[in-house]
Sequence to fold (615 residues):
Amino acid sequence: MSDTVERHEFGAEVGRLLDLVVHALYSDREIFLRELVANAADAMDRRRFEALTDQASALPPDAKVRIVPDKTARTLTLSDAGIGMTKAELAQNLGTIARSGTRAFSQSLGDAKAEDRPSLIGQFGVGFYSAFMVADRVTVTSRRAGSDEAWTWASDGQGAYTLEPATRAEPGTDIVLHLKEDAGEYLEGYRLDHVVRKWADHITVPIALVEDGKEETANQGTALWRKSKSEITPEQYTEFYRHVGMNFDEPWATLHWRAEGALEFSALLFVPGMKPFQAVENERASKVRLHVRRMFITDEAELLPPWLRFVQGVVDTEDLPLNVSREMLQATPVLTKIRRAVTGRVLTELTNRAKDAEGYTPFWENFGPVLKEGIYEDHERRGEIAPLLRFHSSAQDGWTSLPDYVSRMKDGQEAIYYLVADDADALKTSPQLEGFRARGIEVLLLSDHVDAFWPEALGRFDDKPLRSITQGSIDLAKFAGEADAGEAPASVDALVAALKTALAADVSEVRATDRLVESAVVLSASSGGPDLQMQRLLRRAGRGGGSLPVLEINPRHPLIRSLADRVATEEDIAEAAGTLLDLARVQDGDTPRDPVAFARKVAAALAGAASAPAA
Fold:
């Protein structure tokens, strides 16, 4: 070591801390390039700021961050035209773990006007050391703006570093990474280009990739969301939408605004015009991108709740506190307020767009099931979400809403009725609807995977309770209709008793009902338990099926009259009772208790009918 080379120990227990940085602080190895680019961008912003009062610090016109891979030497060099560092600053900023020059500079700004402050990214003084994830030796040559001296800092990250005089034609910094054997991918231009576009595409400082003597721009350098809406064309919005969401369609809605005041951030969000190839039902987390001062931080900040996860885009803030890795956000009041504000803004947009029924339909058909999840997940916003829901109905074509349903309710109708099943087409012909249709009472038809859960969570709408028509006994007698024609046979009570005895192990109750017209039987759930659809879901999940169902019989149906006559003659109807229950289960989209035995009975009945002489 020559006399001009100074050897120093790191100012902290570097072995343990560097091991933390390399193996624990960052989950993604490529983060090192983001950190070094961020530092370079900060240095150039600092130089631009100092030039406001010291013209000697002015940036050259072609100032940029240059990334230069050298496959022969196995080095990766990042050069900037930033403020640079003196010998003392190299020792302070790089020789002491977790001492951030950026933070110290920010504190020194004091009362500088907000518009004059540079937009600085680094805060914790550890980002630089992420270079040792891919490099076994790092050298930093820097010249401070306004000084003629340059110095080189060098270290292998093993507890010490060296400082020695150097030469650099212009102010700025060169960082040379001597890459590890397993880091060769970062010598490939396409890989470096991908990392820059992923993490630093929209910072304003130009970034260039220099390969084989050719210099190519590696970032857009324009944060579209920070521009005024009047400066952006529809084509630019669409281009960015396709870029950020990897989409090919046009956005259904574009939300672009800047929040100012106590909470400041910029946001550019999109509601897609079509379902993504990866179904949103399969991915629960929101992937809206969080940027801090244009630098991409993460798309796992959960800036929107899961029930708005179809929304794509960017939220960019100036002063959101981050932890040292920038990958795991602190649970700060600022982040909570941003989430609330962004969620409220999206809901406002949906509410306004829902006023156009035709225009709202494509959105609902794409993302309605996801939006419904908000009813049972977000107690605070249920009242805002409920009017946005749309349904098929037993009385209307197309889609209808809860407010529209309430406006059509019959005089004396106290509840909003709905029916849930797996099959939308089967819902329309369900026997459960017969009595309601006969009396002109509208029923909402629900067939999405979430529909078994949210109605109970909502409970009421416009002070009207939501009620599944399969749950409990519903008295339709006060509503006149065609179902009231004809008298029930006097022997129906005896039939009900006989059925209760025969089906004691399978049903909780048997009762006559006035809500059937064409069908002989229907199942319902007891008033105290889950409705039939929820019971089916519980059984599929291996969690039991709740209480036994109720078998309701139509006393005016020929089959029921025939069974009543058989009971009156004291004939055993045990086998017929089982078949009756299986019929009810099949009508309700369930399977018979014993499918094979049921199939044999049907086959025998068909054979008997075929062999009977024609009338």
